[in-house]
């Protein structure tokens, strides 16, 4: 009898441990599904996995890794190192701007014709899978990387002042939230002057995913959150034979950035041809070659392994969305978190209410099973309370956002956010 009881106890313990392992595994496989259900994402362009708890913390609270964590550790600068003798024009001058996009034949980019992209924008849309298209890369491989490199190689001698490299979809989770995740708004509001000063500007302001220490090239074991990590060391040796492999590679995802003409030409065209040739002959699967470059563009254009600019500065000097200070910037995301939390509670309330309806007959009688305790009765009046709270928070968030945009019309405020001197007449 005793051995039987021991066996039963062991079986229960084993079952509990199995459930625990299953739960942890299932939790780790949850993606940013809530956000991605609203805005699409192309495979290989910044995909990552996270637990639901991390999703709430990272996507619905302050965009920094920790409170006050404004800069990456080590030698990461606040911004890209200023280009040598940047071509800043007199205040009020216009800059030529090229928009470089890669698309498949099945993808529709007519949205570009329906939005205001700002002044002096020339659209250069590459058809990745149509060799007969006016603009196309030599091979449909490496996602956007092949198109970006092909544009630089083919137009090295006739580049625009500002060259904007973007994905073809308008709405995406990896676009900037304070600009409503809208690629059109990002392009229109992008500061050409900041691009000239910095040379290289990541179009995404938010650190997560990518900063402050995302990729560890020395880790060769596969990490399901960063499948490219185990491949980077071998790729690095071929791409940058003259550079030691860094301990960390980091920058905000997801391969959307702007470059000045001077910054592109600071690297010989032969180097870009070398990178493209590697891409053409690499045996690494297509999705991963694109993701490898996602975290080495900053090496190519800034010679920095870690590039995690201040997020408030990125929004203010980069797009003219200027909060007064870090505290008010944080407050916006705190309110956003409160709204998302209330929305989650409202979904839970509605689920309970729907479950109750399943136990009611058409004539209003309770069906068998209603008395078993399976039902959770939602709190009376809670739905209206949550709906009112969400409406108030939405109004407050939009008011603060629009005030920040208005504040961004002042070039002095933008300069202060970037820590640079400004005098009357300097412009943006």
UniProtKB/TrEMBL annotation:
Keywords: Signal. Pfam families: DUF3431 (PF11913). InterPro entries: DUF3431 (IPR021838). Residues 72-87 have a biased composition (Low complexity). Residues 54-92, 408-428 are annotated as: Disordered. It comes from the Eukaryota. Residues 1-28 form the signal peptide. Residues 413-428 have a biased composition (Basic and acidic residues). This is Uncharacterized protein. It comes from Cladophialophora chaetospira.
